[in-house]
Design goal:
Layout lengths: L4 E6 L6 H10 L6 E7 L5 H18 L4 E5 L2 H5 L4 E4 L5 H14 L10 H24 L4 E4 L4 H11 L5 E3 L3 H13 L6 E8 L2 E9 L2 E2 L1 H9 L17 H7 L8 H4 L1 H13 L4 H16 L19 H13 L4 E8 L12 E9 L2 E4 L7 H23 L2 H10 L6 H14 L14
Parallel strand pairs: 1-2, 1-4, 2-3, 4-5, 5-6
Antiparallel strand pairs: 7-8, 7-11, 8-9, 10-11, 11-12
The protein binds 6-O-phosphono-alpha-D-glucopyranose.
């Protein structure tokens, strides 16, 4: 790769793109990017033009010889790419709003990654990512696919199971956010904090925490028990934890665990929000509008701080650190979504897990943790079953599998409610779910 690196970002018109560009600029000395291709679909053309122009200004301001290309032609972009990052949203934020709102009618949290919303986001996204995988196989077979598209765990699972791509890594900013939150609660610099992460995407636990190499897990549990340390992300309520529950759990949950351990309180908050300020998708739409207004300013040549209102803080650090470590064979430790390969004993070897890995030029090598603690093992396995059945439904368009996935999701109370939600959501997302609406043969 001495010629310089070619990166392709699918969903390049996303408001998150300046994060990525900033990350590449910061690391240019180690990560000499020659070409950055931002790819989008015709509906995203306007956003692509705005964000692409900002990306060009950022590169120019930094005085770097990175060529930024904007295109709607995915296949042209992919030719000979070294890294392909994916950050697209099938159906855009309107589809997310439906994912969040429809289940609420049935007294169920929608949630775009964990609940029925996550199921539908997976059903819409997986066929598209598998098409992208076919293009990668043909046009840039040596490239690494770095997926950010949610539900990132389910998408990684689907790529591992249903495509020929093996150089795939699923990424999320939740572990970085947890590490930063812990550092803040301990009032120390994050560089001194290490966390043993293990679980699944948005279902990841800190099994141990170290400050300068010495375990401080009990102190972190106590810090988390303090309601003033919400330790959450912009997109998730910071409802406080029951301190004795945390002490009993004995490991560090992530922000998304509130959906499972505090279901009714979270539901009450979401119902109220839906009535007042809108669901998260509706709030984000407003934030995006403001961001794109800023991005349009020809004098803006940096990532505006307002981007931090989105849940994806540190997103570029996760992506750029990963790409940097693969490219430079850094062998540092990063939490990513990858094939388990026995790292977590209670999950199948060929399933995707989110776990600390040594990042090499051959990709992530997961670090073995053995069995998960009994307190969390069952929930992790249940979510893995949900992800696997959902991925199968996405690929086959099998209604019964989709109903099964909906019903075994822990946020859905009964098979009947699951069916009602499923039917309404299938209809609402029909245009993005052709696999469920094949004409019946005569
Ligand atoms: C967190 C999650 C991401 C998710 C994002 C949503 O960062 O880790 O997977 O996409 O929040 O943020 P938003 O601002 O879109 O609600």
């Amino acid at each position: 790769m001495t010629k310089g690196i070619k990166i392709v970002t699918i969903g390049g018109g996303s408001s998150y793109t300046p994060e990525l560009v900033e990350g590449f600029i910061k690391r240019y000395d180690e990560l000499p990017i020659r070409e950055l291709w931002l790819v989008d679909i015709p509906e995203g053309q306007e956003k692509l033009n705005i964000v692409g122009a900002l990306a060009k200004r950022m590169v120019e301001k930094a005085g770097l010889p990175i060529e930024v290309h904007l295109t709607l032609d995915r296949r042209a972009a992919l030719k000979d790419a070294d890294f392909v990052t994916t950050q697209f949203r099938v159906g855009l934020l309107d589809a997310r709003a439906k994912d969040e709102r429809i289940p609420l009618k049935y007294g169920v949290i929608g949630q775009e990654t964990n609940g029925p919303g996550g199921l539908f986001k997976g059903l819409r996204t997986i066929p598209v990512i598998l098409e992208i995988c076919k293009d990668i196989e043909e046009l840039c077979p040596d490239a690494w696919l770095i997926n950010f598209t949610n539900p990132a765990g389910m998408v990684t699972e689907a790529v591992l199971r249903y495509s020929n791509i093996r150089k795939v890594v699923g990424l999320c900013n939740v572990p970085i956010g947890m590490r930063m939150g812990i550092a803040k609660a301990l009032d120390v610099d994050a560089s001194r904090v290490q966390v043993d992460f293990a679980g699944l995407n948005h279902m990841v636990y800190g099994l141990n925490v170290y400050l300068d190499g010495v375990s401080v897990l009990p102190q972190v549990v106590e810090a988390m028990a303090d309601p003033s340390n919400a330790m959450t992300m912009k997109n998730i309520s910071g409802l406080s934890w029951e301190p004795d529950f945390l002490r009993g759990l004995g490991v560090i949950p992530c922000g998304y665990h509130r959906y499972y351990y505090k279901t009714s309180e979270m539901l009450a908050e979401e119902l109220e929000a839906a009535e007042t300020k809108g669901t998260r998708a509706e709030v984000v739409k407003q934030v995006e509008k403001e961001l794109f207004e800023l991005y349009k300013d020809p004098n803006l040549a940096i990532k505006p701080p307002q981007l931090e209102k989105r849940g994806g803080a540190y997103y570029s650090d996760a992506a750029c650190n990963l790409i940097n470590s693969i490219y430079n064979d850094k062998r540092d430790i990063q939490p990513v979504n990858t094939r388990n390969n026995g790292a977590i004993a209670s999950i199948e070897d060929d399933s995707a897990v989110e776990v600390n890995c040594v990042i090499t030029k051959e990709g992530p090598k997961p670090i073995a943790v053995g069995d998960l603690p009994v307190a969390v093992r069952g929930l992790v396995q249940q979510i893995k079953s949900f992800e696997r059945v959902a991925a199968e439904a996405a690929v086959t368009g099998d209604y019964n599998k989709a109903l099964l996935a909906m019903t075994i999701n822990p946020l859905v109370p009964t098979d009947k409610i699951a069916k009602e939600i499923l039917d309404e959501m299938l209809e609402a997302h029909k245009e993005y779910l052709p696999q469920f609406f094949q004409p019946v043969e005569a």
